[in-house]
Amino acid sequence: MTAVVLALTALGLLLAILAWVPRSxxxxxxxxxxxxxxxxxxxxxxxxxxxxxxxxxxxWWNLLLLASGSLAVAGGGPLTTSVLALVDxxxxxxxxxxxxxxxxxxxxxxxxxxxxxxYGSIVAGWxxxxxxxxxxxxxxxYPELRSPDQPASVTPTAVAERFIIGTFTSVLxxxxxxxxxxxx
Length: 184
Description:
Layout: H1 2-18, H2 27-49, H3 58-88, H4 97-100, H5 107-123, H6 128-146, H7 156-181
Helix pairs in contact: 1-2, 1-3, 2-3, 2-7, 3-5, 3-7, 5-6, 5-7, 6-7
């Protein structure tokens, strides 16, 4: 079972890297992100059906720790943009969360740092770190969320939706990836 878990996690990581290639929000990115998510779900089911990582040799657990941490950071970006693209279907251009990205610049880098910090705090056994990361992010983004100087092409509601949906997706993804290493 260890080999299957590590192989599925590695496949998820490979898909996470490949998901950065297509245009953000494209159907191809959504499909790749969906398969990546399916790999993570399969790993979770395998770990829950067995004894988790209990009894694993330390080298294999360390490999899972590294792979799932990389998956948390790399996979969260494409997954988040895929979720935002699915949310945007049927919205007008001014309500588009993709257009709101003009206001919330630097989201990919901030999201990667956020996912890394959340993953690290969960794995380190310090879940309070999640609250600190979210508080810092919220305080740092507050001026952009409340700025009256937003472009006319974007509604304030779309900016707030992008922030909330993106943050929740990113946090849930990194917590889930961290959960793999703690399954004993």
